[in-house]
Design brief:
Blueprint (H helix, E strand, L loop, with lengths): L5 E8 L5 E12 L5 E10 L1 H45 L8 H26 L6 E4 H18 L2 E7 L4 E4 L1 H19 L6 E10 L2 E8 L29 H12 L3 E11 L2 E13 L2
Parallel strand pairs: 5-7
Antiparallel strand pairs: 1-2, 2-3, 4-6, 7-8, 8-10, 9-10
Helix pairs in contact: 1-2, 1-3, 3-4, 4-5
């Protein structure tokens, strides 16, 4: 263990054979000569945190299944239409062998798209055991590929402006998850609107930090609750629609795993010569 402090997750087993997850911090104790004579360990019960993480993962899986359904519906419809057309034409002796080649090319194109969506979701679900040097544009691209269909279905326009595309040393899927949670929250608020629905994703660097801003035009957050939106189980949505875990997990990921900060505030901005009012959530991450 050496002279360095160590911290990690362990499982303690009680006398009643109960398994309790804890965050254990161990510190070396030294005498006046600087020699280690023992170790001090402090354990914190993280059962509640693990429960929230488990619930967040289940909620994320539910969102993902919905997104897969959205993304697969159109290509499956195209394939079904082509297959039905070939069958009907054959039954009425109107089948043109020359037409089969462009039809098969379309089917191949659609199946390749389906295969890509499987890869995107599988890579997202894969847990990274070590931090990696990740490109911000790739993170945003992955997040958008997962929620794209639900954004289209809700007539939401997503505008991306990455003024800085620096490398981050982080767990890539965790940052993707944090961004997806924020995007889904914005989408849910925008569903209440009948006119133009907008989400902006912007990034810039300042003072050796990377700032990621996700902004919408959903009229903003009530001043009475804006300070509570990162609390666990806090939601203003109907019970069937919201769990109150998404933004909480984004906060946990950013502050505890990525060593950054996250905040929410209301804003007014101009887009295409029209004033809009909404909320902006800002993620601040160290670039080193």
């Amino acid at each position: 263990m050496g002279e360095l402090d160590k911290m990690g997750e362990w499982t303690f087993i009680t006398k009643k054979n109960q398994h309790v997850p804890v965050l254990l911090k161990v510190k070396a104790l030294k005498d006046k000569k600087g020699e280690i004579y023992g170790y001090l360990g402090i354990a914190r019960d993280i059962t509640q945190q693990k429960l929230l993480e488990s619930q967040a993962k289940l909620a994320s899986m539910g969102e993902m299944i919905g997104n897969i359904a959205h993304q697969w519906r159109q290509p499956l419809s195209v394939i079904s239409t082509i297959a039905s057309g070939v069958k009907v034409k054959s039954e009425f002796n109107q089948f043109d062998p020359e037409q089969i080649f462009p039809d098969m090319d379309t089917i191949i194109q659609q199946t390749q798209y389906l295969s890509k969506t499987i890869d995107d979701f599988r890579n997202f679900l894969r847990e990274s055991k070590e931090k990696e040097s990740i490109n911000l544009s790739k993170v945003v691209e992955t997040a958008l590929s997962i929620v794209q269909s639900s954004m289209i279905d809700n007539n939401i326009t997503v505008v991306v402006n990455l003024k800085n595309n620096g490398l981050l040393h982080a767990f890539p899927n965790q940052l993707v998850q944090a961004i997806i949670n924020i995007l889904n929250n914005a989408k849910d608020e925008l569903e209440k609107k009948s006119d133009q629905k907008l989400i902006f994703i912007e990034a810039y660097a300042k003072d050796n930090h990377l700032f990621i801003e996700i902004k919408d035009n959903a009229f903003g957050i009530s001043n009475e609750i804006i300070s509570r939106i990162f609390e666990p189980y806090f939601t203003t949505k109907h019970q069937k629609q919201g769990t109150g875990i998404g933004l909480y997990m984004s906060n946990e990921i950013v502050t505890k795993h990525l060593k950054g900060e996250i905040k929410a505030q209301n804003c007014k901005f101009k887009f295409n010569n029209k004033m809009h009012k909404g909320a902006v959530i800002t993620i601040t991450l160290p670039l080193n």
